[in-house]
Write a structure and sequence with these properties.
Blueprint (H helix, E strand, L loop, with lengths): L3 E3 L19 E7 L2 E2 L3 E10 L5 E7 L8 E3 L3 E7 L3 E11 L4 E10 L5 E6 L7 E7 L4 E8 L2 E7 L6 E6 L4 H4 L2 E7 L2 E6 L5 E5 L5 E6 L8 E6 L4 E5 L4 E5 L5 E6 L4 E7 L4 E6 L4 E5 L6 E6 L6 E3 L3 E6 L4 E6 L2
Bound molecules: calcium ion (3 copies).
């Protein structure tokens, strides 16, 4: 269970006597269960404490709209029911006898496998995103964009969809082929090209071209999808249902088979599984790379390139100019 505790008080050392400033209340918040199918009954556990006074008010916003929905008296177990599928941000705020506040925030996910629970609009001016990849170090996405013949990679906020950073791919080699897939690998960007050359390209953090190699997952076609499992790159093929694991030297180490020609491949590091979309269906497949078995088939609807963020599978919807986060149980 995730417990978030906010500490907004400023603590002066003992001995400062009455020079110590007023201290804010502390709030501890947990929820059980954190996720499940709607209608979802949960119980929040709230506990508050004011180091130098008393907590006079505690209130809870169940749905993240900024409006507090309920006043709580003292420490409490608060039941609540979420009827609709969504990713809810819950805030508890306590106020002390000096009028200072402390807050704690927690997320509750009410969803069935396959539900789109979050959408983000494309940033202004962006009309096509080729692929996105999640960056756990920042909690943001990297997106590959082509405007005319000028490709760029940009970092976009997972919470708002706004652009935080743009990396132009100015080396002429990037404009020669159709860049398609994007993966973040050890601080560099790994991309595949389209039908022309079937290469994998590497760009450094500044966008400089660092090298390339022929797509190892197919001798005659091109790479479809690209994922990094911490040791190997995984990619599908345009001319078979193979999904191959290979090294940067191009040595294929393993092959599993998708249900159809692959659209995209990503890696769920929590379960150690591949997440695969295909051209032929609107399903998302969870494949165990050690056995090649499809462990789960999730009907999602229109799918395209995407990425896994540890909770949701996000895919690019170039028809509606949105990034869509799908819950997978
Ligand atoms: Ca206080
Ligand atoms: Ca509310
Ligand atoms: Ca992808």
């Amino acid at each position: 269970m995730k417990i978030l505790i906010s500490i907004t008080a400023v603590l002066f050392l003992a001995g400062c006597g009455n020079l110590a400033p007023d201290q804010s209340p502390l709030v501890a918040l947990s929820v059980s269960p954190e996720r499940g199918a709607p209608p979802l009954d949960v119980t929040f556990s709230v506990s508050t404490y004011d180091p130098d006074g008393t907590v006079v008010k505690t209130e809870i916003d169940f749905d993240g709209d900024g409006v507090y929905d309920l006043d709580i008296t003292g420490d409490a177990a608060v039941p609540y029911a979420y009827a609709l599928a969504d990713l809810y941000v819950v805030t508890v705020r306590s106020t002390d006898d000096d009028g200072l506040t402390g807050t704690a925030i927690i997320e509750v996910l009410a969803a069935n496998s396959g539900d789109v629970v979050k959408t983000l609009p494309f940033p202004a001016g962006v009309t096509e995103i080729r692929d996105i990849t999640y960056d756990a170090s920042t909690g943001d996405f990297w997106a590959l964009e082509i405007q005319g013949s000028t490709p760029s990679i940009f970092r976009v906020s997972r919470s708002t969809g706004t652009i935080r950073e743009v990396i132009p791919l100015t080396d002429p080699i990037f404009s020669l082929d159709s860049l398609n897939e994007l993966a973040l690998v050890l601080g560099n960007f790994q991309m595949t090209t389209g039908a022309l050359a079937s290469f994998l390209y590497t760009a450094g953090p500044s966008g400089a071209f660092l090298g390339g190699l022929p797509c190892p997952s197919t001798p005659t076609g091109y790479c479809r999808g690209l994922a990094w499992d911490g040791i190997y790159l995984w990619s599908g093929a345009s001319d078979s249902t193979d999904i191959s694991a290979f090294t940067f030297a191009g040595t294929v180490k393993d092959v599993v088979f998708a249900p159809a020609i692959v659209e995209d491949v990503d890696y769920d590091g929590t379960r150690g599984h591949l997440l695969v979309t295909t051209e032929a269906s609107s399903n998302l497949y969870r494949i165990d790379p050690s056995t090649g078995i499809v462990d789960e088939t999730i009907a999602v609807g229109a799918l395209n390139k995407g990425t896994w963020d540890g909770l949701l599978f996000w895919f690019v919807d170039n028809a509606s100019y949105q990034l869509k986060g799908v819950y997978i149980n």
